[in-house]
Write a structure and sequence with these properties.
Elements: H1 21-38, H2 44-58, H3 60-69
InterPro entries: DUF2274
Protein name: DUF2274 domain-containing protein
Organism: Sphingosinicella soli
Length: 72
Amino acid sequence: MIRLPKLPDKTPIKLAITIMPDLDEKLRAYASFYKDFYGNEESVSSLVPAILEAFLEGDREFSRRRKKSGAK
């Protein structure tokens, strides 16, 4: 058996959402903060997947339930 496990599917999935103006304002402010902090500009659309991933990874109850159910 090969040591390296099969790589996960990395095919991007396009997701279209509608957000309220106040959330748009917060995301733009976050992108500005990100630029100030790291020194490089990223679009809101490129930051949103990372923000969602960080949110889901940080949700302990969600992680516990996924582990309990055997989800990846």
